[in-house]
Design goal:
This protein has 309 residues and is α+β, with helices and mostly antiparallel strands. The chain contains six helices and 14 strands. Helices cover 22% and strands 28% of the residues. The protein is elongated.
């Protein structure tokens, strides 16, 4: 999206900044309404929902889901469509509607179907959500002028979405590229006290399918200060292995999902190392990501050697 500056106004009709918000981008042909699901019965009578537009329903399908589930829809008036999903879809807890500012905007079914098509296409390309849509609409035919006008509306949607905390449509951009040139794991590690390696716990299935076969690992929380420092990732295999067994160089770190987590892409396949057993480490020591140095990783005989006091 272009980096041109823009001004928005946010109206909070019930006085709760975590509740319903109506977002008006200055000089725009549309406006956005974001609302928690629990407020839908109280706000569905608002006139904005009678207008043409598109909407996104967002939530987590299960308590342990790593990515949000989205449903993307459209309507000549979005009210009836959202109302049907209020009773028919349980996963969503937030709604985002993008509608025209007036009922005589000139937007017809072809325009809003094009917007729906583009939003679904973008969400699939970004890969930061699970789509609940059963049918993917084909791109309708628009005149060159109509497509240009509708694209402006789409661009405004993409500008507003991050402001309301929905980043599932953003193409992941690496926030760090420590080994982007394809560096392999060094045979002779540089001795340093600066942590450069993150060790992640891994269950058997995820370790074999993702860490080894897909050359990546995701849904990791990494402190902001550590992002530019992490150059390697090691896997601690949980029971029955209970040991650190593999390491890989990190090519890039990019956002993953909506919850402040990251995906690490490897620049080379993970290689096995001499197993570093859990041994006498305190209970719970490897339940989340831990940081160490590559030199300590190569020299450690047991897990406690990785994290000197």
């Amino acid at each position: 999206m272009p980096s041109d500056g823009f001004t928005i106004r946010i109206f909070v009709p019930d006085g709760d900044p975590e509740g319903v918000r109506i977002i008006d981008r200055m000089a725009s042909t549309g406006l956005a309404i974001t609302f928690p699901r629990v407020q839908w019965p109280n706000i569905k009578a608002r006139p904005e929902f009678q207008r043409a537009g598109v909407y996104v329903l967002s939530g987590y399908a299960t308590d342990d889901a790593e990515l949000p589930t989205l449903y993307i829809g459209q309507g000549d008036g979005v009210l009836d469509r959202i109302e049907s999903h209020y009773s028919g879809k349980d996963f969503w807890d937030w709604g985002f509607a993008f509608v025209t500012k007036s009922t005589d905007s000139g937007f017809n079914r072809a325009h809003i179907t094009w917007l729906e098509h583009m939003l679904i296409t973008r969400a699939r390309l970004a890969g930061r959500s699970h789509l609940n849509n059963g049918n993917i609409p084909t791109e309708p035919t628009l005149s060159e002028a109509d497509k240009a006008d509708t694209y402006l509306f789409l661009r405004e949607i993409f500008q507003v979405l991050p402001l309301v905390g929905l980043r599932a449509f953003e193409i992941p951009v690496p926030v760090a590229t420590p080994n982007a040139s394809g560096e392999i794991v060094p045979a002779a590690p540089k001795v340093t006290d600066e942590p450069d390696t993150v060790i992640v716990p891994a269950q058997k299935d995820g370790f074999e399918e993702v860490f080894l076969r897909q050359n990546a690992w995701w849904a990791i929380r990494i402190g902001g200060g550590m992002i530019p420092k992490v150059k390697y990732i090691a896997a601690y295999q949980s029971n029955p292995v209970s040991a650190v067994t593999h390491v890989a160089p990190v090519a890039s770190i990019e956002p993953y999902g909506e919850d402040g987590k990251y995906k690490l892409n490897f620049s080379a396949p993970a290689k096995p190392i001499d197993p570093i057993p859990f041994a006498d480490a305190p209970s719970g020591s490897m339940q989340g990501p831990r940081y160490t140095t590559y030199a300590r990783l190569m020299a450690a005989k047991k897990v406690t050697d990785l994290f000197p006091k």
